[in-house]
Request: fold
Amino acid sequence: AQRVTQPEKLLSVFKGAPVELKCNYSYSGSPELFWYVQYSRQRLQLLLRHISRESIKGFTADLNKGETSFHLKKPFAQEEDSAMYYCALRTLGGGGNKLTFGTGTQLKVEL
Amino acid sequence: DVKVTQSSRYLVKRTGEKVFLECVQDMDHENMFWYRQDPGLGLRLIYFSYDVKMKEKGDIPEGYSVSREKKERFSLILESASTNQTSMYLCASRGPNSPLHFGNGTRLTVT
Reply:
């Protein structure tokens, strides 16, 4: 069965410090990974996905199949990055409709 | 821009009541989903539907049912509400090769 693990419930960093939100997954097939973000009083929205290999709002994430990880990184945290971040895993092929989410990490950027 | 609309933002119901949560999307998406969001547990999939009148159980379907009579509408039904169903309920839709688009959520309290 597929599983997504986000080990940190809360991550607190100072403005300008580097950020790394951890995500590990378990899945025997070929995974597709996403990061979703929920800002205060807003709906959950896609931040980035691994197949796009893009940087959104300064965030990047690289899929490491050897370590089964998809950590989210940003070199310099901004106050507006404070939000809840969810890592998600979608299987390709059969059952591809399902998206499994981690438990989320609350990022707090302090001045 | 995709719009996913959940009919109620807040709902308070009594134990044993039958509860309907409605969700409508305007992008002709085939796939629709119901998740519940709980602190420390993240998002857990209750049910999803990949076409009209088609449905599949997610990870926590017990105590819930769904209805998809029209492509744009996906309803979540609590047959007999219980206090452990107090939660934030999120509806989402997805087209082919597109990310999930979420509604604003319905915060349900069962007393």
